[in-house]
Amino acid sequence: MATSAAQRFGRRLASSVPRRRFSSSAAAAAAAATGGSAVQRTQNPSLNLCSAINQALHIALDTDPRSYVFGEDVSFGGVFRCTVGLADRFGKGRVFNTPLCEQGIVGFGIGLAAMGNRAVAEIQFADYIFPAFDQIVNEAAKFRYRSGNQFNCGGLTIRAPYGAVGHGGHYHSQSPEAFFCHVPGIKVVIPRSPSQAKGLLLSCIRDPNPIVFFEPKWLYRLAVEEVPEHDYTLPLSEAEVIREGTDITMVGWGAQLSVMEEACLDAENDGISCELIDLKTLLPWDKETVEASVRKTGRLLISHEAPVTGGFGAEISASIVERCFLRLQAPVARICGLDTPFPLVFEPFYLPTKNKILDAIKSTVNY
Amino acid sequence: MATWLRRTRAVAHYLRRSSGRPSTSRVVLDRQGAPLPAVPPLGSVGIGRAAGRISPAPFPVFSAKRLESTRAEKHLASVHEAEDDDTVDDDDDDAQVLDFPGGKVAFTSRMQFIAESAEERVPCYRVLDDYGQQIENDCSAQVNEELAVKMYTDMVTLQIMDAVFFEAQRQGRISFYLTSMGEEAINIASAAALTDDDVVMPQYREQGVLLWRGFTLQEFANQCFGNKVDYGKGRQMPIHYGSNKHNYFTVSSPIATQIPQAVGAAYSLKMDKRSACVAAYFGDGSTSEGDFHAGLNFAAVMEAPVIFICRNNGWAISTHTREQFRSDGIVVRGQAYGIRSIRVDGNDALAVYSAVREAREMAIKDQMPILVEALTYRVGHHSTSDDSTKYRPMDEIEYWKMSRNPVNRFRKWVERNMWWDDKKEVELRNNIRKQVLQAIQTAETYEKPPLSDLFRDVYDTLPSNLHEQESQLRETIERHPKDYPLDVPV
Description:
The complex is a heterodimer of chains A (367) and B (490). Chain A has helices at residues 2-16, 20-34, 38-42, 49-63, 86-90, 102-114, 133-140, 143-146, 177-180, 194-206, 219-222, 256-269, 287-297, 312-324, 347-350, 354-365; strands at 46-48, 67-71, 95-97, 118-122, 156-162, 187-189, 211-216, 224-226, 240-243, 248-252, 274-278, 281-283, 300-307, 333-337.
């Protein structure tokens, strides 16, 4: 088991290193924003995802004096080190530890945001976000609507590391995004790489709506790529085709995209051309980009780590079937986590691994 | 003992030196008093807070229980007997303390559990006696004629508004209502003690606070009817008021959610160095919610200028406070969180005014939270959906309604000061009643908000899925117009 976990880990690493393809749009957008050239682009330092998040938080605090970063253990840099250096630079008044209480963190953040501040709240693990569920679902999400737009808590961004890490078991591995995608009034955003994480996080912090921002913690240190140093944002609710293909459309987000990318490469060896889409924003999501792709390929595969039943893949599947029924040449495939709690020893069995995806690609194309 | 003592000092000294912290900083001792790193080393990525939750605490600390344990005392005695025992202590008494996060903790050889409750209940602060007679030597002189008459007028207005709106619900003109009967003094007097700059985070039985701030009877009626001039655009049930211009956040039904939010808002006032505080209102039932604990604990830790005003009215729908908690009400919880607290007679307007005014001064000047527990009684039903005679005796309701009526009591005091008389009373009541009826009639004539308001304000702008759903719905309405209410403009 240890061996297979290590293999998987290695594959993640292998697939995370040549991420240029993943980051191309961010780098291009950044270069365009500065009028920069390709030469300038290559001068950008390589950062891992954790450092990219850290850089985004530095910029957010630096560019808006009414911005705050807080949560459990964030003051000394956070258990993942994403908030390193912030308290020293911006002071304990703006970057601080909170008591160990998720509903308190989010409730506090809503109040802070409702007074016209940008409140960046950290939930230490997405697995622990549930005590704050009421504050997110009944309070943050409805704050603007219920007041007739007299009040809003749009300055609230909730950051939470999510997903598998190889040894996290039940409570350090979950992908709870689907719960939040059922809540009108919040946005749900998940980045796939360091440069994406920086640009998307800055967009989320500055967006006038409350946002849950899930960070793929497996990629905190594994994903390394060039990240433009300057302040830039990436659009929300816009999916991105990160790999063009003609035979099948594949939709994913976050860390799972690197697994899907591997499957694409292997499928290519078998002569199957895959189009890979990063959804980035799950709520409200960019149906049009996915629809256009499926109209072209006639096939759709969705993959996520969360359990398949009631997962966000179901929503994508249903929406695309509604729009592309006559164009589809095979049933929509969902390669996702199993309908079990996230298991420790059985993690390699639970996960939607490359070969599960590859098999599904083949059976969908050969349907 | 001497060895133990020396060792404790040595530990403190060592930690001061090694951590560079002052002596009051964290000192973590293991069971033998050996020093452990004050800051635990970082675990590997992926194992953070929760690892500590699910496994035994990584660093066993000298718990309070152990401090009081005679067994520990014996153990320590045997430890020092086994070692050299030649030192005579010079400052034995005052040095025998544990320097622990939060301050020095004295040792005791007496095993004594803290009692579950004090022998006597916390007394209730009041200014007016049961007959509206002012008790001497109190600070209520601050309430002059103008203020007193305004307070009394608003208490009566609140009473009449509640009575008429309740009746309107019974007539089927509005779908729901909820009165603040019996709690007029808390509503109006606490509001009078605040300034308009103070931010109010209400629960739902504080319409009097909004009334005090100038929200008109027409505005109340518009909300209850959910018409097109309701600021909430007809989206929420009646009584879910909110007014940006009055610094009064919109009511939401879930209990206690406003409490941690109030702390965040107060922290904002603190950071902006504003001379203002947040007033968070809630009832006795709220104090069982996790958000109550979260909010009070956060407020204490963040030193946020917030006043927590608990209306302990005895009943959470049908649940009596006996079934809600076993503490001496709410006021005693304050100290456990490190919050200055007071219990006040919620049916004594002057006492509520004085206490909240003082609480406000302290909250702003000392930048700290204050807890005010106001003892009162919910004379009305929980709401129009409730019949409280099913779970509580009529004579209990009558007693509070008649003998302990806060409006009558305040009136006696105002009259005693020659600021009020029967003639004014009759005029006021007739006048207000007419105004409330007029407000209802006017609110009824307005049409409902337009259909487009169904889709607006979910986000700051309309996302594509809502665009699509709006046009689909409009097509459906065209096909089946009879399925939809006529008073909503499409």
